[in-house]
Amino acid sequence: MQVYRSYFSTLNLTYPHFGLPYLLLSSRRLHNEALPLYRENARFNFKGTKQLLDFLTSINHETLCKLRHIAVRGFSFLVYRDTEAFAYTTYSFEQVLPLFPGLQLSTLWVGDPFHGKWSSEDGWGHNATYSTVDELIKSQGFKELIFVVENDRFLKPVRFDSHATSGTQGAESRHPQPSTWDAMIKERDGPSASVEMYRLLDDGSHRIPLRTEFETVQEATGKGDEGQIEVRIKRGTNADHVQKGELVNEWAKGLYDLFKELSWEEIKEKELYVEAEDDPTAHL
Asked: How many CB atoms lie within 10 A of CB 105?
């Protein structure tokens, strides 16, 4: 069994190319014996939230409960609540997770969509990233969450001028991080839980632990590279991390009601889903 685990843990698969490895096709006995270990050890990667839903809604509940490692770019999820709706509603990534009760990942890697080359950065995106981390700390469905942002601008204060379309750095403060987030998860799960934050340099090979958002990295590499920010959220040792499908907040109720009424395929067929990946901050 350990041989199977070691082999499957090397698989880094990208949707929709999730074909079974040849090992599982060699015999019926081996297939039945090793298939659960494949689901528990392989990492399944998704370009965005839409692709994640495409996959999770296509598998049965038993298979969903056995998945352990998922990586996804956490785009906002945009839908019209019904065919008569005048405007679409924007839901943040963490509000999608309760659609899949039974999800119990060992690791959930989430890439931030509001910073970097795929986004026109602004204050709306800074706030969206910060609040997403805040809400993921309260979420279920994973033992450890790794949240990666292209830079540290989301940690800096943001002020919005009247009628402005973008935020500017101003007087509104942020809480010290990761100490505030660490206190939040410890209050929830006990002292074994933690939130740690790192700056990633040299394509992630050099990890600098950060203790507050005001801390800067010395020019140790001589490159002046700003580096990505990695936030690691670890649930407590005895915490019940299984996704229960509970309502996150009243704002998300419309999303859950929609999925009770229609399937994901029907939502797409009725053109209630709105693509948000080309310009993520434009829909906030």
From this structure: 20
Residues 6+ apart with CB under 8 A from 128: 76, 92, 114, 281, 284
Q: Which of 123, 121, 129 is nearest to 161 (CA)?
A: 123
**Which pair of structure tokens corresponds to residue 223?**
């490159």
The C-alpha angle with vertex 108 and arms to 181 and 198, in degrees rounded to 5, equals 45
Convert the pLDDT of each residue in 7-32 to its tens digit.
999 999 999 999 888 888 888 888 88
pTM, entire model: 0.90
Distance of alpha carbon 81 from alpha carbon 63, whole angstroms: 29
Q: What is the pLDDT of residues 29-82, one digit of tens each?
A: 888 888 989 999 999 999 999 999 999 999 999 999 999 999 999 999 999 988
Rounded to an integer, what distance in angstroms lies between the CA atom of residue 225 and that of residue 235?
31
Instruction: Give dist(CA 8, CA 14) in Å, integer.
Output: 14
pLDDT tens readout for residues 148-166: 999 988 988 877 654 444 5
